[in-house]
Amino acid sequence: MTQLDAILRELESRKNPVKAKFHSGYFKTGKGEYGAGDTFLGITVPEQRRIARAYIDLAITDVKKMLESKVHEHRFTALEILVAKYKKSTDKEKKKIVNFYLKNRKYINNWDLVDTSARFILGDFLLDKDKSVLYKLAKSKRVWDRRIAIISTHRFIYEEKFENTLRIAKILIDDTHDLIHKAVGWMLREVGNKSLETEEKFLKKCAKNMPRTMLRYAIEKFPPGKRNFYLSQ
């Protein structure tokens, strides 16, 4: 039995039909919804991460086969393996993983897949490099590319480098997708966790033009009086 066969068999053995049905609704898999066509086994995230850690040496060609699957947990686990591979790689190997990630991002097609991978792979790699790829992604017609762009900047925020988060937030401020509103608001809140002054400087200029969901996420941890101030803009 190959490693690929083994990991797929282990994932299959963990399936839970009740959770699979719930996940199908939670991740909007109905006709016309953003997750349309996705199928689920009903495996929890901790279980998938545990399995991924056991298969960190899975060949990159097999990681790609898992990414190509219509089964959501196959793709999620593949990305967890890719993150684990990235973390233990040399700089040269990391560049190859990033190129692989970008080349195969069409399979990164739900918010949890973006959130579990973008900041740990693309964000980390670009920390001290040219970030033009993020601006290209931020202007993409594909919602998941745009989410990758803003979520990747979480790695920069951790290092208290806020410029790219704020610039990409401005690009996405007129975005019409709820999942982008939530992502941008989340990253602005993370900026505030590091520098409330920086977040508020941005909000004082932009709050009145922000979608309400984006703003609510950004000010979630503010005291009631301050939240009401921004919501009244």
TrEMBL record:
In terms of superkingdom, the source organism counts as Bacteria
Q: Which SUPFAM superfamilies match?
A: ARM repeat
Q: Which CDD domains match?
A: AlkD_like
Please report the name of this protein according to its UniProt entry: DNA alkylation repair protein
Q: Which organism is it from?
A: Candidatus Taylorbacteria bacterium RIFCSPLOWO2_01_FULL_45_15b
Q: What is the lineage of its organism?
A: Bacteria, Candidatus Tayloriibacteriota
